[in-house]
Automatic annotation (TrEMBL):
It is found in: Cytoplasm. The lineage of its organism: Eukaryota, Metazoa, Chordata, Craniata, Vertebrata. One of its GO terms (cellular component) is membrane. One of its GO terms (biological process) is autophagy. InterPro entries: Clathrin_H-chain/VPS_repeat (IPR000547), CNH_dom (IPR001180), Vam6/VPS39/TRAP1 (IPR032914), VPS39/TGF_beta_rcpt-assoc_1 (IPR019452), VPS39/TGFA1_Znf (IPR019453). This is Transforming growth factor beta receptor associated protein 1. PROSITE patterns: CHCR, CNH. Pfam families: CNH, Vps39_1, zf-Vps39_C. Residues 23-296 form the CNH domain. CHCR repeats lie at residues 563-725. It comes from Pelusios castaneus. Keywords: Cytoplasm, Protein transport, Transport.
Length: 861
């Protein structure tokens, strides 16, 4: 596919060059700055001054002003011209001799310095000699298979090297010490300094004209077989793919990133970046194509033309306009070397963004996303394509010049709803990815608001996730949009995020009451209760507590019973106020009191008593309506409370129970009053529940000492063995009690109580258990005694160690503190062996070290 990379502009036309000399033709050209030199077949050199002009519409023209011309005095054509601007010299090859002439007046140097015997020559553009006033010239000599290297100065020449080649050379290019040679049958790389050579590939110079051109440091362009333009380095390898020329290529030139080739009828332009043919220009009778410092000049026998490169930016924009995205990006990357870094970065980002929009318009979303991210697109450029997504308060204006040609998404999709849906899905995904990145700094409100609108319109599940996490949705725009799409629950979340809990609750309550319709959450009532549970605004909680309780007492009371600990610390509700609110709701009141008494462990009599009364009333009510299941559950709770709590009014509850069938509960209350005989009488004689009687003894003696526990079990045994009410059933209960709880009895006392008629076999489990318990107790006592003796022995050993070596005290010993002799046998000795008076040791302020000694438990006296 074609790209307009160059424009062919006339530079020197035939009329200005030759006037009426019809047989005169252009043989060679050289351009140095604005100086253009033309060598003709009649041995003349013409010097022109080139002036470039740009019109108001951007059209480029060249004006060639003739400075002078010079006849060299030979009858042969001027074969080659090379300018050495550092020397102000023009090297002219004519009749196998290279003459040095002045660049301005075209006069030969006075010394007559010249190089003889040259078939063709070239300059070393990467010289190995460090002299700035010298150029290195490489010639193909008239001698067979010979290359010669010369140093050319302002007025003299000097041969420095002569190199012999395997075959006759036809063309040469030089870079440093390396020669790239077209021989008769092949191309080679030759290091003239070391003499080493590297074969490249075969080529028949008799069939086609060889081309050897240096295109960069240690790299050459060659005309290969099969119409290929081959790239080769001095190491003999190719780092670029070849370009496909015509079979009849005459010349080649380089104007990065393009390779320009000339054949009999066309000028072709190939890209070095992707090796594709980019442009073809008709051009007949051309026989010269050369590049000079970025200027590409082509010539026929009768005229000279310049290939003017169009600006790379314009070429890239043309490619983008043709939707040739990949080519545009390749060209843009290649342009890096020709454009200043800062300018390139700005340009390249814009190109990436434009390419992204092209892919986007083609619904190639993965490619578009990658280009948008790499090009750091202001995502509002994308959002602005979607009508009404940007907030009304947004100050965004689109880039100028525009990044794309579309007014909005409707134009881009031409009203195709399926395409619009795909585009919206892409934007949702893209915004969700970039909203947390640094590229969105400064306009997060625009992004989050647009994302909310897309989610709401598409009924997307991520709408709620957006609103319950950190977001920057603008309230006014977002609220109107959510209301438009009947997303009332989400609107409530938006109000809550913006600190408007009252508005949120009002909206949600309307949904639950059926005033407005929104099926987002089927458990919205439970959600509101949970919301109120975490709400720190007490006024708001009280406002909606009644409503929640009316809907469900069991769920509504959770507003007060499931408040998190940190919320309780910040906003503590007075339990009395809560209970006043719950008085109309008995189930809620019970739940709340259970929360206070059982969960929070509040030790207040009124709460414990109130809960017990409510349990009792519920039990009595269940009895009247014959609700067995509820009765069992509530009665279990009542018994548990009566057993475990020590804070209710026992007599008050007992008075309420009298006259009912709640015998077990009455027994528990008697137990709390330490009236165990009454309690056991109820359990044994009224309820005849022997298991319950045993359990009573166990729980009543919890956290009590062994004698207390034994007393309870002995009381129960006495009840069983009471001769007044004794019966076979009670006897069996007594036997079971003894056999099952042998460790809880004093065996000696039991043997005095049991009737003599009882056999040993009947009490064998009890007796066995009692014996085991007695032996176990004895052994444990022996172990404890042994441990105590061992501990005492350790202490005695420590005491002996502490006594240590005998201490001798004489009248020659002096107190360490007062330095006075001892007049009394009483003294204090420190662990370091120092001795002081007892009264000196008592004075802790005499010596700073004294406190340390006295506090040491190892001090000896």
């Amino acid at each position: 596919m074609s790209v307009k990379a160059f424009k062919l502009v006339p530079a020197v036309e035939w009329e200005r060059l030759m006037r009426d000399k019809a047989r005169i033709s252009v043989e060679c050209i050289e351009c140095c700055g604005k100086n253009l030199y033309i060598g003709t077949n009649d041995c003349f050199i013409y010097h022109f001054l080139l002036e470039e002009k740009i019109s108001s519409v951007g059209k480029i023209t060249f004006t060639a002003t003739k400075q002078l011309h010079k006849y060299l005095g030979f009858k042969k054509a001027v074969s080659e011209l090379k300018a050495a601007s550092a020397l102000n010299r023009l090297l002219v090859l004519c009749d196998n001799a290279i003459t040095l002439v002045n660049m301005m007046n075209l006069e030969p140097v006075p010394t007559g310095a010249r190089i003889k015997g040259a078939v063709t020559f070239t300059l070393n553009e990467n010289p190995v000699n460090g002299d700035p006033f010298c150029v290195e010239v490489c010639i193909i000599s008239v001698k067979r298979r010979t290359i010669q290297m010369f140093m050319v100065y302002e007025d003299r020449v000097q041969i420095v090297k002569e190199v012999f080649t395997p075959e006759q050379p036809c063309a040469v290019a030089v870079d440093g010490h390396y020669l790239c040679l077209a021989l008769t049958t092949q191309y080679i790389i030759l290091n003239y300094n070391t003499g080493t050579s590297q074969d490249l590939f075969p080529y028949c110079s008799e069939e086609k004209r060889p081309i050897v051109k240096r295109i960069g440091r240690e790299e050459f362009l060659l005309a290969g077989p099969g119409g290929l333009g081959m790239f080769a380095t001095v190491d003999g390898i190719s780092q670029r793919a070849p370009v496909h020329w015509s079979e009849n290529v005459i010349g080649a030139a380089l104007c990065f990133p393009y390779v320009v080739a000339l054949d009999d009828e066309f000028i072709t332009v190939h890209s070095m970046l992707d090796q594709q043919l980019k442009q073809t220009l008709p051009f007949k009778e051309g026989h010269i194509l050369q590049d000079f410092e970025g200027k590409v000049i082509v010539a026929t026998n009768k005229g000279v033309y310049i290939l003017v490169p169009l600006p790379l930016e314009r070429q890239i924009q043309d490619l983008l306009a043709s939707h040739r995205v990949e080519e545009a990006l390749v060209l843009a990357k290649g342009a890096r070397r020709n454009i200043p870094k800062e300018k390139f970065q700005v340009m390249y980002k814009r190109i990436l963004q434009q390419a992204g929009f092209i892919h986007f318009a083609q619904l190639q979303f993965l490619e578009a996303k990658e280009l948008f991210r790499t090009g750091q697109l202001d995502v509002r450029e994308l959002i602005s394509l979607y009508p009404f997504l940007l907030p009304t308060s947004s100050s965004f204006t689109r880039s100028h010049p525009p990044l794309h040609e579309y007014a909005d998404l409707n134009q881009l999709t031409q009203g195709d709803q399926e395409k619009m849906t795909k585009c919206k899905r892409f934007l949702m995904s893209y915004l969700n990815e970039v909203r947390s990145t640094e590229v969105t700094n400064g306009y997060k409100e625009d992004i989050d608001t647009a994302l909310l609108k897309l989610y709401a319109e598409a009924n997307h599940e991520s709408l709620l996730d957006l609103l319950v996490s950190e977001n920057f949705c603008l309230l006014t725009d977002s609220a109107a949009w959510l209301e438009k799409h009947k997303k009332y629950f989400a609107l409530g979340l938006l109000y809550h995020y913006n600190g408007q809990d009252a508005a949120a609750l009002q909206l949600w309550v309307k949904i639950v009451n059926g005033d407005i319709q929104d099926s987002t959450r089927s458990d919205l009532y439970e959600y509101i209760v949970d919301f109120l549970t975490f709400c720190s605004d007490q006024e708001l909680v009280w406002k909606y507590a009644e409503w929640a309780l009316q809907k469900s007492e069991e769920v509504g009371v959770q507003i007060f019973t499931k408040r998190p600990l940190e919320e309780q610390q910040k906003t503590s509700f007075n339990p009395d106020d809560v209970m006043n609110c719950l008085n109309k709701y008995s189930k809620s009141l019970v739940k709340y009191l259970e929360y206070l008494v059982l969960d929070k462990k509040i030790e207040k009599e009124k709460y414990h008593t109130h809960l017990a009364v409510l349990y009792l009333e519920a039990v009595l009510k269940s009895v009247t309506i014959d609700n067995c299941e509820e009765l069992t559950e509530t009665r279990t709770k009542l018994r548990s409370l009566l057993q475990k709590s020590d804070f209710y009014r026992i007599h008050f509850i007992l008075d309420k129970i009298r006259g009912t069938d709640l015998h077990m509960e009455r027994a528990i209350l008697y137990g709390k009053l330490e009236e165990h005989d009454k309690a056991l009488h109820i359990l044994v004689h009224e309820l005849k529940d022997f298991t319950a009687a045993e359990d009573y003894c166990i729980w009543s003696s919890e956290s009590k000492d062994l004698p207390y526990k034994q007393r309870l079990f002995h009381m129960l045994l006495s009840v069983y063995l009471n001769p007044v009410s004794s019966g076979c059933e009670l006897v069996m209960a007594a036997v079971d009690l003894l056999n099952n709880h042998a460790a809880e009895f004093d065996a000696a006392c039991v043997l005095q109580l049991v009737p003599d008629s009882w056999s040993v076999q009947l009490l064998s489990p009890f007796l066995t258990g009692a014996m085991r318990e007695s032996i176990h107790t004895k052994r444990m006592t022996q172990i404890a005694l042994g441990l105590a003796k061992a501990e005492n022995l350790i202490y005695k050993h420590d005491k002996v160690k502490l006594k240590g070596t005998p201490i001798i005290l004489s009248d020659k010993k002096l107190c360490q503190l007062c330095q006075s002799p001892f007049s009394d046998p009483a003294f204090v000795r420190y662990p370091d062996g120092g001795m002081v008076h007892t009264h000196c040791a008592g004075n802790r302020f005499l010596n700073p070290n004294l406190t340390h000694h006295l506090s040491n438990p190892s001090s000896q006296t």
